[in-house]
Amino acid sequence: MHAKTPTTTPTGEALRRSLDGPFHALKQRWRDEVTADDVVRDTALGMEEARDWTLAKVVELAGRNFVTAGFPTEVGGSGNAAESVANFEMMAMGDLSLTIKSGVQHGLFGGAIVNLGTQWHHETFLPSAIDVSLPGCFAMTELGHGSDVQSIETTITWDATTAEFVVDSPTPTAAKAYIGNAARDGRMAAVFGQLWVDGAHQGVHVALVPIRDEQGDDLPGVTTGDHGHKGGLLGVDNGTIAFDHVHVPREMLLNRYGGVDADGVYRSDIKSKNARFFTMLGTLVRGRICVGGGAASAARKGLTIAVDYANRRRQFRAPGLGEEVHLMDYLTHQRRLLPEVARAYAYGFAQNELALQLQRITDAAGSDPIAARELETRAAGMKATLTRWANDTLQTCREACGGAGFMSDNGITLARQDADIFATFEGDNTVLLQLVAKALLLDYKSTWGDMDLRGTAQKTAKLIGTTVLERTTARSVIERLVAAADLKPEAERIRMRGWHVSLFEFREQHTVEGLAQRMRAAAKEKDSFAATNACQTHMLEAARAHIDRVVLEAFIEGIAECDDDYVRALLVKVCDLYALATIEANRAWYLEHEAFEPRRSKAVTAEVDKLVGELRGRSQELVEGLGVPAGWLHHPTAAVPPLLP
Amino acid sequence: MHAKTPTTTPTGEALRRSLDGPFHALKQRWRDEVTADDVVRDTALGMEEARDWTLAKVVELAGRNFVTAGFPTEVGGSGNAAESVANFEMMAMGDLSLTIKSGVQHGLFGGAIVNLGTQWHHETFLPSAIDVSLPGCFAMTELGHGSDVQSIETTITWDATTAEFVVDSPTPTAAKAYIGNAARDGRMAAVFGQLWVDGAHQGVHVALVPIRDEQGDDLPGVTTGDHGHKGGLLGVDNGTIAFDHVHVPREMLLNRYGGVDADGVYRSDIKSKNARFFTMLGTLVRGRICVGGGAASAARKGLTIAVDYANRRRQFRAPGLGEEVHLMDYLTHQRRLLPEVARAYAYGFAQNELALQLQRITDAAGSDPIAARELETRAAGMKATLTRWANDTLQTCREACGGAGFMSDNGITLARQDADIFATFEGDNTVLLQLVAKALLLDYKSTWGDMDLRGTAQKTAKLIGTTVLERTTARSVIERLVAAADLKPEAERIRMRGWHVSLFEFREQHTVEGLAQRMRAAAKEKDSFAATNACQTHMLEAARAHIDRVVLEAFIEGIAECDDDYVRALLVKVCDLYALATIEANRAWYLEHEAFEPRRSKAVTAEVDKLVGELRGRSQELVEGLGVPAGWLHHPTAAVPPLLP
């Protein structure tokens, strides 16, 4: 049996309120009403048992109204996309299999029906999608095409003779792959395929296709497969689906952006196939935002466990000291964990802002395409950044707990394994960062799909010295901070936020403008693949610099909104650590671009050392502030007391 | 069913011969005689099934004489420690659970008997340790003490009245923890404890203690526990062992370095308790060398899978090109995988050298303590470096294969999960790197345990400009290379090995000397913990710089020994990539220390880009050269064709 769940300190509570921000009440409801029994998986479960547990718990949470926020009010949701992101983040503090199972069912399958379907689809399918009586698949990725969705091979062909659509996988690589709910539980799939009507290609559309009967057997023409054991997410039944000329009624096409009328004619309000595709995909941006936030939640859980362990575990006697030293007192240990705690805060504030931005765009209902593309860009960049960070941080946490961290009962290993694939699904991180760079070059004026790299290069308007970084809500605050820092001699600026902001902005501006120059030069080359390929690493750099700056500004905004003086002062220090650790991580770039001298670079490292020492005494409160319920850190039946001794 | 195992290309074969070096015949025997059925685990096995499979396969391989090299010739071994390392590395290309199960049984339990025991122990226990009829534990780590072995709490007390030793766990934290074979299979344990004879403390010694009867039940006074599910190594039954005044006969103490004679008196040839402890520990250095090599083998397997996939998988159509582009043609993909292939070669050559060094020290039988400490230092540094690299590289490989990489049948995920703990066991990496730094400061003149950090600081003789880097076998070659580079203008040096060596040496020399200065200053401070703690990150830097240089020299030596002109030219390019990628990774340090200008730093990055492009066409042959049998990349019953499509 475990010791009683410790009470959160007042500072921990106040930090939590600040980091929860607009979602505090919603997140607090999870903490008050959801127990470890509801959301923490027993590590001993085998694959089939894990699948059973996961399905049962998703049904339960749906029944208790914890995962329905994203659905329209008519079917019992709140119609609030931002809240559905916050729900996803809370669930992810419990178990990521559970989170992804619900994400597949409610976010992707349900979300496709909500966003791409019309009233009949909503009325007919949403109630059973919500209560999971109709387990569904989101059948987009194929064996042959993952990142390049526009090239999928599945066809959805209008058959005028029967007035039905025929869904088909014309080649082995056209089989849908890695699809959640496909191996076992799914009864219906939202199938992405190339729509053909009367011999005309209309681009990728989505049809609802029943795949299994009541007994769970494949329906005629459908062949499902089981991927079996995976690197993680054992509770999610990923598998393949292949179609052999499966007929579905005309109504089964999700026709919000284009469909075949009763007269057998294709109609769409969007003329360009390309624009239609990216409009449809754009409505699914929530999934990407959820995945970034969910990965960050898992990292927060890992940090909570590792910091708590480091504050209790002792090893080696220090010369001249009687007692053995706490791990957290070692500089190397502070260096491993505390900058990541600072990043957890930074990404948390930025994620809140992103969720609110999602809500604004959803409310705007397509009236502001530039703002929508800005949202998609930020969602892509944040997803890539947060999932990369979560993977690295969970590994760091495992190692920081030594052998104890490797014992699954101690709460880190399942999160580590489950978070792995977050770097790949909902968009491969390397591909996403390139999309971000492309959007930055084009000032969100065109959709990602509008042009290839050569076209992007030709269209980019950026010139050295001309880039205006897009405003965030904190812009006026930030200009004051920069002006204040500019007045100080360099030696006194190291903890001045304005200096940090200037350096972040310089890096973004310079990498984006430098990329534009390179791309323009590349566009003139004969071998345009080779020339634009050579720009790839610069694209990643520019995208990362952009997201770093956006995150810093969100942190500044989050601090401005904190009304507790003590907590605000603490957050300022955490933000110092985020900013300086990020500058330190990029100091090679700054030195190469002579943004500062070698001496200054060493001073940044020394200041990070100093800051982790200053925050060491607040480390326990800081991880409480990350908001993971203490009772969820381990499964209630864990065989060993957590993180012995 | 799989496609037929592809034939290795002549270049791949030649690279393999070169990288296998002195162990080619031994490693080739594994490739010729061992099948996937022998060494590749079915990913679908649950924990208990995995334990069954692992035990059965270890018994089989022992019977076929694949894991016995390290044992004395009298009991059927070859007495060759270097060969036992090579065997370990080959087994690790199959499955790490299997490798660690054999490592616990033959390397640690058997190794303790070989190295710390005397003739009676050898004759009595080695035959059954080898054929696994006596499954054994290496019971060193305790719940309360892992890295700090000298502080373990278990006691081994001489009871003169019964002429027996009493083994006891006086506190809950004294329980042995994370012990392989402890949860299920073990029948006897080599127990580390504080030896007390007639009220005098003699330091840590090892006693053999039976722990289970024939039926597998705990013997009286022994309590074993099962850690259950772990982050990996599911085939190894790790658990706890606690002792309640368990009596064992006098002979059961492994008494090579100290024991109680028939007259009840403690005798040892080594006077100092501290020296005795580090001498005993030193004889166990092979385990650390194996762990580094085994992790590197797993990374080689991951790289083989990921590079092969990247050479077959296509995604996105390039502007102006008809076909979709192979992943391996993208610069970002080349950047992710090819520097790691280069590191695989670098670490492989360095690991061969380390194994030979182990053999020399073993043959010297204690006659050269300075050389022995140099070996221990290098083993510690290589273990930390190779296991860190393997963890990072396996993760990179998983991500580079996208969703396919996450499907366990595709061969990466089990290796990734199993390799994780290699960063912790056989010495936590952060602790090991500090030991390396300490040894460098003391020029191997004292053992690690001889003094604390303050003492180390006072004893260090190093001053800026006085450090002489210890010679490696390649020293004379290297001096010629450096001299040749010195004659060239800087712009022409970028692929000159001498320039690389100079930069690697500068970094080592400067970090070690800088550390010495800091340590001396710290030793004068009143709060010596705080002062030496502030040096910790510098210790890690110095240790890494040292190992990087040692590895580069080993690579140079490996190339010098290659007698195939074509292969040598290819290896030169791979070594260029290793050297320049390492310089690039440390360019912030070089810029801070004004070893080169910003322009030069950017040129290094550009040259790495160029090199990965040049090696891209050789990537398939290069991974063949890593020596992983093609038939071992996936389990024979894998449910899906590997890495579809």
Automatic annotation (TrEMBL), chains A, B:
Residues 36-130 form the Acyl-CoA dehydrogenase/oxidase N-terminal domain. InterPro entries: ACOX_C_alpha1, Acyl-CoA_Oxase/DH_mid-dom, Acyl-CoA_oxidase, Acyl-CoA_oxidase_C, AcylCoA_DH/ox_N. Keywords: FAD, Flavoprotein, Oxidoreductase. Residues 501-626 form the Acyl-CoA oxidase C-terminal domain. Its cofactor is FAD. Residues 137-246 form the Acyl-CoA oxidase/dehydrogenase middle domain. Pfam families: ACOX, ACOX_C_alpha1, Acyl-CoA_dh_M, Acyl-CoA_dh_N. Residues 282-441 form the Acyl-CoA oxidase C-alpha1 domain. It comes from the Bacteria. This is Acyl-CoA dehydrogenase family protein. It comes from Tessaracoccus palaemonis. The lineage of its organism: Bacteria, Bacillati, Actinomycetota, Actinomycetes, Propionibacteriales.
